[in-house]
Write a structure and sequence with these properties.
Blueprint lengths: L2 E6 L4 E4 L2 E3 L1 H18 L3 E4 L11 H11 L4 E8 L5 H14 L4 E6 L24 H15 L3 E4 L12 E3 L11 E4 L3 H10 L2 E4 L2 E2 L7 H18 L8 E5 L1 E3 L3 H7 L7 E5 L2 E5 L3 E3 L1 H9 L2 H5 L2 E6 L5 H15 L12
Length: about 350
């Protein structure tokens, strides 16, 4: 494990006792937490993206604000649902953010996850899917997006235009030459991970896989990572792709930590999500010495270069920063991590 960061679901709404976390609160607290993490030398801050839900739905605005207030930390998504996206507009936004952040973008995209609404992407104007979950729309949009960020022309130049004219096809602007290497695909199976390797983008793998091979989750996920890397090599891509996995991990250091998270370790298992028989990863809550040994035994965590800690955003930035700081101080160095402040 070379890098770690946080993955926030960005939930907001009633907290009980007459208290409420508003959308404004959620975004301002995300910025505050990212600033604190940047000072600690944590590598990244990533956000889930969900439409029609009280979560982050317009990530580029939030990531731009974070990038403007930090200097080292990577800003990213995990993941943007491509069923909802105009791929050319996303290409413009992503390139602009990659340039503004000096290459600190980690753009995670995918088909998306189960929704709170039925075929919500159709309300955004993307209809005609032959797949009940819209996977064909997501793949088509992703293909167009990659072609756009690679610099392919999408519209004929007008030779009569007073703004340059000329002939041939015009690419989307702005163009970021580093953006392609900052794109990740969120894969839920070994098959989709291998597809991502062939395409030549990085891999994001979550706390569940929508398949069951009758083996522990971390081993199944490690197989997914191995398949991805082999597919990358077989396709002849240059360089080394990045791989991230996410886990719920809570170092128990103070009495308050034990009160909130003591006894919350879960072994994972098998169930159903979005109509698929799926394998779920375990959650970790233990003292730092125990966590180090447990994570060293997690085959996928040790295989990936980046670990994302899922955090309970409703508890506020101060509490979450303490979780992150405890992990950075007591656990991460034992797994091979060094802060960005030392780079």
């Amino acid at each position: 494990m070379e890098r770690f960061g946080t993955l926030s679901f960005g939930h907001y709404g009633p907290l009980g006792g007459g208290r409420e976390l508003t959308a404004r609160d959620s975004m301002h607290q995300a910025i505050e937490l990212a600033e604190g993490m940047d000072e600690l030398g944590v590598n990244g801050v990533y956000f889930r993206v969900h439409h029609f839900a009280r979560q982050q739905a317009a990530p580029m605005t939030l990531l731009s604000a974070i990038a403007a207030r930090t200097t080292r930390i990577e800003v990213g998504t995990g993941v943007i649902d491509m069923r909802y996206e105009n791929p050319l507009h996303l290409a413009e936004d992503a390139a602009a953010l990659d340039l503004l952040s000096d290459g600190r973008l980690a753009l995670g995209v995918s088909r998306g996850s189960p929704e709170t609404v039925v075929r919500g992407y159709e309300a955004f104007g993307y209809t005609g899917s032959q797949d009940p979950r819209g996977a064909d729309i997501a793949r088509a949009h992703f293909d167009t997006f990659l072609r756009a960020i690679d610099g392919e022309g999408f519209a004929d130049r007008d030779p009569r235009s007073p703004f340059g004219g000329g002939t041939g096809r015009q690419r989307i602007e702005p163009h970021s030459p580093t953006l392609r290497s900052h794109v990740w695909w969120g894969a839920g199976t070994r098959e989709t991970a291998e597809w991502a390797g062939r395409v030549g983008v990085n891999l994001m793998s979550s706390t569940l896989l929508t398949e069951d091979a009758n083996i522990p989750f971390d081993q199944l996920q490690a197989e997914q990572i191995d398949g991805f890397r082999q597919a990358w090599r077989d396709a002849g891509h240059e360089g080394t792709p990045r791989v991230s996995v996410s886990r719920s991990i809570f170092p128990l250091v103070t009495a308050e930590d034990h009160m909130y998270f003591g006894g919350q370790s879960e072994q994972g298992g098998v169930g159903y999500i979005d109509g698929f028989r799926s394998t779920f990863g375990k959650s970790y809550a233990a003292t730092p010495d125990v966590l180090v040994q447990e994570l060293k035994n997690d085959a996928a965590v040790m295989s990936a270069d980046t670990l994302m800690l899922t955090i309970p955003s409703q508890l506020g930035p101060a509490f979450n920063l303490r979780i992150v700081e405890n992990f950075a101080k007591y656990v991460a160095p034992e797994l091979g991590w060094k802060p960005t402040t030392e780079s």
